[in-house]
């Protein structure tokens, strides 16, 4: 009899946790779209403290490709395309291009990123899908993936993510992503502004910092298929 009662209580606890988890996912994540596009501004700060800014045109096909065109004063500077298994960079100023995998982001941030993680980061979603071992609280979702701990802080009213903090056991690597406001686009809530900060110590013991600010402008959800052009002129040099 005691064993039956114990099993019943465990099942009730699991069902309650699953319901709570599903509610958290539904309120936090922007998943109801196929295509998304928007314009915006990006600012970066280099190691010397100098600020650089440019305009961006962002297009996303869910779970498939992230495409970014970068320009300044109406002059196209660069273009990026990130797919599930590869990434490409086109430098229109120096007339060269490169193909690489996403491990280069680990060298910059200290964390392994996939196309889905980048997509989630840009949309204000949880970086990782919810698992049974994750802790879901009123204002926080705490996830452990390998040596990394990811804490997503939620707005108590909208339940949207306001901040994501990353740390890694055994290292001084830290990451902080902040979302300042959201804008309603049909069924989605797209960030108005986000800041991305990563700090890691390289093999020589020197701190390396990635500091980026992105402002979104006029996001839209196209109902028809959109293109992701990435033509490489024959005159461009491969790096």
What key attributes describe this structure?
single chain, 239 residues, alpha+beta, outer membrane lipoprotein receptor (LolB), chain A, two-stranded antiparallel sheet, 3 helices, 16 strands, 18% helix, globular
In one word, what is the shape? globular
Give me the CATH architecture, please: Clam
DSSP helix fraction:
10-25%
Number of strand elements: 16
Run of helices and strands: HEEEEEEHHEEEEEEEEEE
Number of domains: 1
Could you state the CATH homologous superfamily?
A: Lipoprotein localisation LolA/LolB/LppX
CATH class: Mainly Beta
- Sheet with most strands: strand arrangement: 7-8-9-10-11-14-15-1-2-3-4-5-6-16
Q: Number of helical runs? A: 3
How large, in whole angstroms, is the Cα Rg? 20 Å
Give the class from helix and strand content and strand pairing. alpha+beta
Question: Could you characterize the architecture of this molecule?
Answer:
With 239 residues, the protein is an alpha+beta fold. The chain has one domain: Lipoprotein localisation LolA/LolB/LppX (outer membrane lipoprotein receptor (LolB), chain A, Clam). The strands form 2 sheets. It has a 14-stranded mixed β-sheet with strand order 7-8-9-10-11-14-15-1-2-3-4-5-6-16. Strands 12-13 form a two-stranded antiparallel ribbon. A hairpin with a 3-residue loop joins β4 and β5. The protein is globular, with a radius of gyration of 20 Å.
